[in-house]
Amino acid sequence: MAGAGSGTAAGKHLSELGLTARSGRDPRISGLTVDSRAVKDGMLFAALPGARWHGAEFIGPALRMGAAAILTDAEGAKLAAEALEGSSAALIVAGDPREALAYAAALWFGAQPATMVAVTGTNGKTSVATFTRQIWMALGHAAINIGTTGVEGAWAAPSSHTTPDPITLQAMLAEAAAAGVTHAAMEASSHGLDQRRLDGVRLKAAGFTNLTQDHLDYHHTMEAYADAKAALFTRLLPEDGTAVVNLNGAGGAEMLALAEERGLKTLAIGRDPLADLRITGQRYDATGQDLRFDWKGEPFQLHLNLVGGFQAENVLVAAGLAIAAGAAPRDVFAVLPQLTGVRGRMQLAATRKNGAAVYVDYAHTPDAIETALKALRPHVMGRIVIVFGAGGDRDTTKRPLMGAAARAHADVLYVTDDNPRSEEPATIRAAVLAACPDANEVGDRAEAILLGVDALGPGDALLIAGKGHETGQTIQGQVYPFDDVEQASIAVAALDGVI
Ligand SMILES: CC(=O)N[C@H]1[C@@H](OP(=O)(O)OP(=O)(O)OC[C@H]2O[C@@H](n3ccc(=O)[nH]c3=O)[C@H](O)[C@@H]2O)O[C@H](CO)[C@@H](O)[C@@H]1O[C@H](C)C(=O)N[C@@H](C)C(=O)N[C@H](CCC(=O)O)C(=O)O
Ligand SMILES: Nc1ncnc2c1ncn2[C@@H]1O[C@H](COP(=O)(O)OP(=O)(O)OP(=O)(O)O)[C@@H](O)[C@H]1O
Ligand SMILES: N[C@H](CCC[C@H](N)C(=O)O)C(=O)O
Ligand SMILES: [Mg+2]
């Protein structure tokens, strides 16, 4: 959603949105938008500096469409000086217009679910947000999770981003609150944090899973990527909020130290003896695992219907968030055995007649590939086959690292395509293959899956990595229907003669 004008017919004055115009004028505006093409009479147009251009380039068209106020930065005001000359629109020049917009959007829409938490980290955000929502629902609350898989739970809506832009996000939160939702767990992507998309959200607690390489196309350095993630604890979480940190995850100790430095309450998860929720044992079976942990020294043991050792960390971060947001620890632990896996995360998609299992997983970073393959090992007697690829128009430096992770932890490799987007697919595959030259190269993903399934003997397992819940393959701006889970079933049916 690029614009917002509905629901508040009378509009709001700039001053009610925390905005002050240079002229001191305080018009009543009819809505907010970041897209000049969505401007309607009386709206505020936020002209933001973007990756491709500065939104101020579009101030002229926005004024012609009837914008009553322009929010931008000093550079934007300079860029649009000519267009603004003689205009009666109010001009707000903010040091950080994205921050100003996030707070204005929160004030525009008003309501948010009373209990909100956010989770960041390279891998595991969707899993933790979904588990947190499941815990809350099992405890009888009207709860949602917001992220890569859209808005799910007591109220549902699609979403094009993991962390939606502030106007879309605040509109969602207000609608969910109006529908009776009291609890929300959201994913804080590094792009979202950097662009201040969730700055207007009132958080009770924030979670951290891990920090490993991804998105260097956007952040350029791991330091800048880490800083973007740290902002959830150093900027967004209020003073009385709780930081829930997975000490087992890379970067966890540093994140906990930052939270402690700020004097926040903390809840640590991990094998470390100092952890509040301390994992003391895990035993794997075909469909899940037994988990033993201590809560502030008191032992608990339960069964999780989730494959993969790392899922126990995600579950405990979710439990920590629920506790930090007010739930009684014993009540939370009692419902953990009810948790169900997130679609496309270590999902058992099909089983061959010979017993070999086919899993679909969303691993699309070097660490996730390593984690997912290592997690499968204790469940597999024979060889592990992997079908994977790297996305186009994304961090190019992660490609050989993904190849190396697959080579180190799988026995048979098929390198295929995963959303080449605007790039030449063969170039992406070559970058992956540079680190696993013995892998089979099969560009067509359906064919790669068929070959991967065909390679399975008794006791083997196949991991189809990278697309998880996705339902499309994006090639040159076109989205072609594609579903790994469906393709796995088709391949098994074709090879084993069952429909
Ligand atoms: C790099 C990035 O995050 N870009 C997002 C950003 O675009 P931008 O501000 O850079 O836009 P731009 O194209 O340079 O345009 C600048 C400004 O001019 C405006 N404009 C542009 C054209 C026009 O005619 N009129 C006009 O007003 C635009 O609305 C924009 O405000 O703001 C846009 C509007 O909110 C987003 O749609 C866009 O997401 C792009 C499509 C994207 O792919 N983002 C991905 C990388 C992303 O955010 N991913 C993360 C998570 C990934 C993960 O963790 O795995 C996510 O949270 O989803
Ligand atoms: N705690 C974890 N540690 C390491 N890897 C993990 C962890 N949790 C999940 N993964 C891996 O990352 C993949 C993606 O998981 P999930 O969707 O929960 O992460 P995400 O952070 O939401 O990803 P995205 O940034 O794309 O939204 C999983 O399919 C799994 O392979
Ligand atoms: N949120 C991630 C998803 C990547 C999923 C993978 N299938 C790919 O296309 O690289 C991104 O936009 O980088
Ligand atoms: Mg996600």
TrEMBL record:
Catalyzed reactions per annotation: UDP-N-acetyl-alpha-D-muramoyl-L-alanyl-D-glutamate + meso-2,6-diaminopimelate + ATP = UDP-N-acetyl-alpha-D-muramoyl-L-alanyl-gamma-D-glutamyl-meso-2,6-diaminopimelate + ADP + phosphate + H(+)
MF-aspect GO terms: ATP binding; magnesium ion binding; UDP-N-acetylmuramoylalanyl-D-glutamate-2,6-diaminopimelate ligase activity
Ranges for domain Mur ligase C-terminal: 344-468
Keywords on record: ATP-binding, Cell cycle, Cell division, Cell shape, Cell wall biogenesis/degradation, Cytoplasm, Ligase, Magnesium, Nucleotide-binding, Peptidoglycan synthesis
Keyword set includes Plastid: no
Annotated binding of meso-2,6-diaminopimelate, by residue: R394, D418, N419, P420, R421, G466, E470
Name by which UniProt lists this protein: UDP-N-acetylmuramoyl-L-alanyl-D-glutamate--2,6-diaminopimelate ligase
Pathway noted in the entry: Cell wall biogenesis; peptidoglycan biosynthesis
Gene (name only): murE
Residue numbers binding ATP: G121, T122, N123, G124, K125, T126, S127
UniProt GO BP: cell division; cell wall organization; peptidoglycan biosynthetic process; regulation of cell shape
Cellular location(s): Cytoplasm
Residues where N6-carboxylysine is found: K229
Role this protein plays: Catalyzes the addition of meso-diaminopimelic acid to the nucleotide precursor UDP-N-acetylmuramoyl-L-alanyl-D-glutamate (UMAG) in the biosynthesis of bacterial cell-wall peptidoglycan.
Required co-factors: Mg(2+)
Residues involved in UDP-N-acetyl-alpha-D-muramoyl-L-alanyl-D-glutamate binding: S36, T162, T163, S189, Q195, R197
GO cellular component terms, A-Z: cytoplasm
InterPro entries (alphabetical): Mur-like_cat_sf (IPR036565), Mur_ligase_C (IPR004101), Mur_ligase_C_dom_sf (IPR036615), Mur_ligase_cen (IPR013221), Mur_ligase_N (IPR000713), MurE/MurF_N (IPR035911), UDP-N-AcMur-Glu-dNH2Pim_ligase (IPR005761)
Free-text description of this protein's post-translational modifications in UniProt: Carboxylation is probably crucial for Mg(2+) binding and, consequently, for the gamma-phosphate positioning of ATP.
PANTHER family xrefs: MUR LIGASE FAMILY MEMBER, UDP-N-ACETYLMURAMOYL-L-ALANYL-D-GLUTAMATE--2,6-DIAMINOPIMELATE LIGASE MURE HOMOLOG, CHLOROPLASTIC
Domain of life per record: Bacteria
Stored Gene3D superfamilies: Mur ligase, C-terminal domain, Mur-like, catalytic domain, MurE/MurF, N-terminal domain
